[in-house]
Design brief:
about 250 residues; alpha/beta; Urease, subunit C, domain 1; TIM Barrel; 2 domains; five-stranded mixed beta sheet; five-stranded parallel beta sheet
Length: about 250
């Protein structure tokens, strides 16, 4: 539909100038899905004709929010680990006991694509209701080509549903899966090898890695980044959350 609509009696945060560019008695014109005019209500164009008017009752209107770091597609839950943290367990202790990322990997691997989509869609709806219009979705809970692809396909399907705009990030180097125990370099080789296929399938917008003492070394992270750059993919990094591995310098 191409309805011309006037939204009036709004507090508009334009984010231009000081004080968030706030216009207390603001108005906004839209046509279909596009904003065509914003400003003070007193400055509305003369002779304006619209199809519909909405009184916002002084509500605050802001640009859509962007969540640039989410792990939206996953199975399972880790409420028990929250209790462990409250009782003094560290992130590293939980991870080394098989919890943390590995716990979610097991649950995600056991979930079907349909189940993951249903769970992720509910989470996206909650975020949209809170004003998020664009979000990044990382993989990283599959840690195999099959399940990483499954999670990235779900992220693409969320975008197609039109609730929010979605950008995908391949985070294969998130943790070491159990089948690669003791073979971390071999797993990094696999992560780099899968990258090209996932990109060819149209599933990847960027690449991330977890450079930490419970993740991957700077040298291993560099290999992942070099593979991404060879494919023309931008890189992101989880670093220095738990330890100083020099990850921030690597990203810089």
């Amino acid at each position: 539909m191409n309805t011309k609509r006037l939204w009036r009696n709004a507090r508009l945060a334009t984010l231009t100038g000081e004080g968030w560019g706030l216009i207390d008695q603001g108005a906004m014109l839209t046509q279909g899905e596009h904003i065509t005019w914003v400003g003070a209500q007193s400055a509305l164009p003369a002779g304006l004709v619209v199809d519909d008017e909405r009184d916002l009752g002084g509500a605050l209107v802001t640009p859509g929010l962007v969540d640039c770091h989410t792990h939206l597609v996953y199975g399972g839950r880790r409420a028990d680990e929250a209790e462990m943290r409250l009782n003094g367990a560290t992130y590293e202790q939980i991870a080394r006991a098989g919890g943390g990322i590995r716990s979610t990997v097991a649950a995600t691997r056991a979930a079907s694509e349909e189940e993951l989509l249903s769970l992720a869609a509910k989470r996206a709806q909650v975020m949209a209701a809170q004003g998020v219009t664009t979000l990044e979705v990382k993989s990283g809970y599959g840690l195999s080509l099959e399940v990483e692809a499954r999670c990235l396909r779900v992220a693409r399907q969320l975008a197609q549903a039109g609730v929010v705009d979605v950008r995908t990030t391949y985070l294969g180097a998130h943790a070491l899966p159990p089948e690669f125990e003791g073979r971390q370099d071999a797993y990094v080789d696999a992560v780099c090898g899968w990258m090209g296929q996932l990109q060819a399938d149209g599933l990847v917008d960027a690449v991330d890695a977890f450079c930490e003492n419970v993740g991957f070394t700077p040298a291993q992270t560099r290999r992942v980044f070099e593979a991404a750059q060879a494919l023309g993919l931008p890189v992101k990094l989880h670093a220095e959350q738990l330890s100083d591995q020099g990850g921030a310098a690597l990203a810089a």
